[in-house]
Write a structure and sequence with these properties.
Layout: H1 3-15, H2 18-32, H3 49-54, H4 56-59, E1 63-76, E2 79-85, E3 90-96, H5 97-100, H6 102-108, E4 116-125, E5 131-142, H7 158-163, H8 165-171, H9 173-195, E6 199-200, E7 206-207, E8 219-222, E9 227-231, H10 237-246, E10 250-258, E11 270-279, H11 283-302, E12 306-309, E13 312-315, E14 321-324, H12 325-333, H13 342-351, H14 362-374, E15 381-384, E16 396-397, E17 400-404, E18 406-411, E19 414-421, H15 426-441, H16 452-458, E20 465-471, H17 473-479
Length: 496
């Protein structure tokens, strides 16, 4: 018996449960016999389980080589039925002693649920009609020292599901399929924009000044340069605008961004976002682009234009509504945001039993009021006419300079994208940044930082442009799940 196996067995007496001790003993026996499965480096898989099941008529009677994890086992003496799972699905394997031979069958009977095996055999259908593989040869490729969760009940504790996501994926085909759909989601966005001439770019994740959004950044220190830096809170917004200055007319980026804020049903600290910038286009062009993109993505992910989420029935193909910020707050809550005082806004929030920080400035209080209204809007639709104080980066509306030339996508009571006509007047933007800096100095953690380098760049001339961003929150709404469930490995506090 090898030393490492002996050492593990010694630890198991006090630290490992009985089941794991048994499995370690089996591993030791395999190692002593020169059959340590961890020494296997390759198995020539030529078929997936889903491929076999979906193409049974053409594959019936053919030889295949599959590999996967044993998930269930029916032992009937010299005949055994096991179910193995691979990335694409699962399939039944029929193992008979007289087919695989006495020696291999004897080894096989000592294997366990959770072990990863390779199977060579013929495709057939059992008398009960189940597509299966009749094993001619089987090989142990990796020994599972712990048993997987029970296949039919899976993991129920959300803490364990997130902390040990690999187990959740191991036993839940629904969860695994969801993450395949997530790849389809982002690939569809990427292909849609690429087909329309947008250039995919990469911009810095570490920034000296945190800009491009109203959010609290993560701060860290760059040892080599001996400077404090921030993890980006936008998908390269200010960098992509510099590319507009440089002469690129259409750009986009898909990547991770980070916000040091609260966790909720639809908020995470790090998540995937797409932002794109389109020179010489306005919000009307942007609305057409966004509608087409969202409809394309919905069909690719959901198989049609409709899905149910958060109690709403959403149809992306129906006519999109227009929600005016000022009018809808007045209509739903009876508050005129341009004549109300801060105390009146606070009184309305108190009446609605909505929590808020009393130190917030007037427009942040108004934004909370809007979010009360938003939660009851089904969409799909566009929010327009937001107060310019809530975002310093859009142009003002020509017919009402109090408001930003901006759109937000509203679906299932939440924001599912944000875009606007980019402000390219360096003098106006410089003044707005000064106002934001004053807000930050007074305690607003989400105020924009003053970016002198960005102001300097657009003094060389930036074309009129439309910019837009959407995060994976849209995907989570399509799945009707919290964002946390739609991330493969969400951030967790270490176990004590």
């Amino acid at each position: 018996m090898s030393d490492d196996i002996n050492n593990n067995l010694e630890l198991s007496e006090t630290e490992l449960n009985d089941q794991m001790r048994v499995r370690l003993e089996k591993l030791a026996e395999l190692s002593d016999g020169g059959r340590n499965p961890y020494h296997v480096t390759k198995f020539d898989v030529n078929s997936g389980t889903a491929e076999i099941i979906n193409n049974f008529e053409s594959l019936d009677g053919t030889d295949v080589k599959i590999a996967g994890r044993i998930m269930t086992w029916r032992d009937m003496g010299k005949t055994n039925f096991i179910n193995i799972s691979d990335c694409s699905g699962n399939i039944q394997v029929y193992v008979r002693k007289d087919s695989v031979g006495d020696e291999i069958f004897a080894q096989f009977k000592k294997w366990d649920i959770g072990d990863i095996i390779g199977v060579s055999g013929k495709v057939f259908r059992t008398n009960s009609g189940e597509v299966s593989v009749r094993a001619d040869n089987i090989e142990l490729l990796s020994k599972a020292l712990k048993s997987p969760p029970e296949k039919f009940h899976g993991l129920k504790d959300p803490e364990i599901k997130f902390r040990k996501r690999y187990l959740d994926l191991m036993v839940s085909r629904e969860v695994k399929d969801m993450f395949v759909k997530k790849q389809v989601f982002w690939n569809t966005v990427r292909n849609f924009l690429s087909e329309r001439g947008f250039l995919e770019v990469e911009t810095p994740i570490l920034e000296v000044i945190s800009g491009g959004a109203a959010a609290t950044p993560f701060k860290t220190h760059h040892n080599a340069l001996d400077i404090d830096v921030y993890l980006r809170i936008s998908m390269g917004e200010l960098w992509q605008k510099k590319l507009l200055v440089a002469g690129f007319d259409k750009t986009f980026e898909i990547g991770r961004q980070f916000r040091n804020e609260g966790m909720s049903y639809e908020h995470l600290q790090d998540y995937t976002q797409m932002e794109c910038y389109w020179a010489y286009a306005d919000c009307n062009d942007g609305m057409d682009l966004v509608k087409e993109m969202y409809r394309r993505v919905t069909r690719a992910v959901m198989g049609g234009s409709k899905f149910a989420s958060r109690g709403f029935e959403i149809d992306m193909d129906k006519e999109w509504l227009i929600y005016d910020f000022e009018n809808i707050i007045k209509e739903k809550l009876g508050v005129d945001i341009y004549s109300a005082t801060a105390e009146q806004i606070k009184a309305k929030l108190d009446e609605l039993k909505v929590a808020y920080d009393p130190k917030l400035n007037f427009w942040r209080l108004v934004d909370i009021l809007w979010k009360v209204v938003r939660k009851d809007l089904s969409g799909p639709g566009f929010l327009t006419g937001q107060p310019i104080e809530l975002n310093p980066l859009p142009k003002r509306l020509k017919d009402d300079p109090r408001k930003a030339d901006q759109i937000q996508i509203i679906i299932a009571g939440s924001e599912m994208g944000n875009g606007y006509a980019e402000l390219n007047d360096p003098l106006d933007l410089e003044n707005r940044f000064k106002e934001q800096q004053a807000m930050g100095d007074s305690g607003d953690a989400e105020a924009h930082s003053f970016d002198h380098d960005f102001i300097e760049s657009i003094k060389y001339g930036m074309p009129p442009a439309f910019g837009f961003g959407v995060s994976e929150r849209l995907f989570s709404v399509m799945m009707d799940k919290p964002m946390r469930e739609c991330v493969l490995f969400p951030l967790m506090k270490p176990e004590k």
